[in-house]
Write a structure and sequence with these properties.
Length: 474
Amino acid sequence: MSRILSVASEAVPLVKTGGLADVVGALPGALATLGDEMITLLPGYPGVMGKLETVREVAAWDDLFGGAGRLLSANASGLALLVVEAPHLYEREGGPYLTPQGQDWPDNPERFAALCWVAAEIAAGQAGDWVPEVIHGHDWQAGLVPEYLFARECAVPFIFTVHNIAFHGNAAAERMASLRLDDWRFTPDHYEYWGQISALKAGLMGAARITTVSQTYAEELLTEEFGIGMDGVLRDRQAVLSGIVNGIDTGVWNPEADPEIKPYKTPKGKAANKAALRAEFDLPQADGPLCILVSRLTEQKGIDLLLEALPTLLERGGQLALLGSGDPALEGAVRDAALAHENVSVRIGYDEALSHRMMAGADVILVPSRFEPCGLTQLYGLRYGTVPLVALTGGLADTVINASPAALARGVATGVQFFPINAHALGNAVSRLCDLYAQPKVFAAMQRNAMKQPVGWGTSAEAYHSLYADVLAG
Ligand code: ADP
Ligand code: GLC
């Protein structure tokens, strides 16, 4: 039984740009079943402020990084929250990190430093009567917490979860004062990183334990290829690094009771959803597998590899329905593919409800990521009997059982993996997948295996629960 303050920049269902929000939103409920009390500290973006219930002010500051701020205790959609209300930092149009034009907010370092500074206030008993025993921070936006804890001589331990090492949260050294950082700690042992301030590094150096969202990514992070400049730091801290794979909310992602779909218990029940999905995406009948991809459209996600391998899928009678948004060049490229082929259909945008209908109706979910710390869409796919075709990396390596001859013979395969991560290997994997799809019994067995995989939070919530108990035991 521990009291934990979770510090994050997004949480479902209040604000989401990616899987981080799903994890942060699901953890408190999963931990509650084990007796842990987790309260989530979030920035008061407009989308958060508008949804708060039972609001109570627990602290106020005249100058919270450049303007007045308050800490509110509140509930929203079943989450127990502490919310930093600071209009000068968070009350803006646009996303949590980006302007409406898609640029980083220039004051992002201060915006998230304020969040971390407030977390330390709470831990030091300076903000309300609820005081956590552990702080659990997520990604660089929570990285400065240990610096502020140190400044207050507060001994509450900090656990840091890396969801994506690619984002460092760097700021120029001149911003030390505006970030309220001690200049004598501007050293490689603390938050200095190649002459800059790095919130990510501060978190990695100051954490009692570091976790990341799969075992394979924990190993990959130690390599130059995947560590993206932080591999050296992580090798130094390897003794406290571990991987805990993400779960999904099996209540929200439940093919037997999903209000967006025609519910089903077995793969056979997908047929009606498939017909509906084809109609929704204006796709004709076809002999090959109906594949989907639901993703941010960025370099990480390997969309370009898929476009290169697309001819193989189309030659085999396969189809692609894609939902995503992001990089304008990639948006243009997938739109062009849809214009060029009647068996490719694309929706640019963000649409949670549509993503459920896609999971229910598709035969295959594609995740050709160049790196993937965990990945959630392959987990939704498993749960919905939608066979994942994934790159062999990070959480995709840990959650999918490749249809090797041995796995097929033992009847345990749940998907197809490809390696190395390039268009050629992806094309070969698409061929293998089409071969499997052409054997209805084999494919249906894979779908049934997929649906049996334990993709909920059970084991992983227990792993976090033990981690909190461990750091508290010293
Ligand atoms: P990442 O966090 O790197 O984006 P994940 O696979 O962990 O990757 O999580 C992505 C989450 O965002 C999933 O819940 C996925 O369904 C959702 N998602 C991504 N793009 C879209 C979209 N265009 N519409 C609906 N949901 C999306
Ligand atoms: C990051 C990663 C993704 C992971 C998610 C939640 O956004 O890119 O792989 O699933 O965080 O941990």
